[in-house]
Amino acid sequence: MTAADATYGRKDIVYIQVNDSSAGDGSGALTAPVLYLAGTPSDTPVAPDLPARSFLVGTITVPVAGGGSPTAVLNTARFVAAGGIQPVADAAEQATLTAYEGLRIDRLDLDRVLRYNGSRWVGGRATVTLDSLYLPLGAGYAAPQVTQNADGDVIFEGAWQRASGTLTMLANTQYALGTVPSGYRPMTNKMIIVPTSTAMGGWGRLYVTPAGAVTFETPTAFSSVAAASTFIICDGTTWPTT
């Protein structure tokens, strides 16, 4: 490293420069050396500009001579070959990307692969907003949720239970259960045969609309079923999204 300045602090950088003369970059080399570049001492030091065809590895803050040891900060951004899946730390880093159709990223905080489809990111997981009368069943079942892959296909799963009191339903009448969040909704109406508790008749029909409404109807009426004796389970249903 360049010695510390006697008057001012400094910021240096470590970087990798990609030289590919076969691609006509004028470097005359086929190398990717790790290089060091000292900044200019200043009372408000800034790191030097990154040279052409380079990726920042980290920044080194060099205090004035006698002011202690230099400190280094790693650049957490990750770089991949063209068309590769780009690791991204979080939503803040994702927002800095120049998105293009087909770009795939690996959101490290979500452990999910997302893809930009030309208008929005597809992929991820979200919970279904439940009607106030219901809550997740628990008992080892997932809370009602939707999981989307990087191709835009959604898996719908989870289990509901009456929150409290008792449950009464008329036959062949749709009752609201919740709402699927925007971006995960089906393109067409979906009707799903689902298991229910014995007290609720053992099965019923679950509906999901393109507007996100989730409703349930039973083929057999029942009344005053205790909340603890109710459940509706939906697992593994899939649909495409735009």
Describe the structure.
The protein is an all-beta fold. The protein is built from one helix and 22 strands.
Keywords:
242 residues, 5-stranded antiparallel beta sheet, 22 strands, 2% helix, 44% strand, elongated, single chain, mainly beta
Give helix % range.
under 10%
Question: What Rg is obtained from the alpha carbons, in whole angstroms?
Answer: 28 Å
Mean of all residue-level pLDDT scores: 94
Counted beta strands: 22
Category by helix and strand content: mainly beta
Taken from the alpha-carbon principal axes, the silhouette is elongated
Number of helical regions: 1
β-strand percent reads 35-45%
Largest sheet: 5 strands, antiparallel
Report, as a whole number of angstroms, the end-to-end distance.
Answer: 53 Å
Question: Spans with pLDDT under 50 lasting ≥5 residues?
Answer: none
Q: Give, in order, the helices and strands.
A: EEEEEEEHEEEEEEEEEEEEEEE
Q: What does this entry show, briefly?
A:
By secondary structure, the chain is mainly β. The protein has one helix at residues 91-95, and strands spanning 10-17, 19-20, 30-31, 34-37, 54-62, 71-74, 86-88, 104-107, 112-116, 121-122, 124-127, 129-130, 134-136, 145-148, 153-162, 166-169, 175-179, 190-195, 203-208, 213-217, 222-226, 232-240.
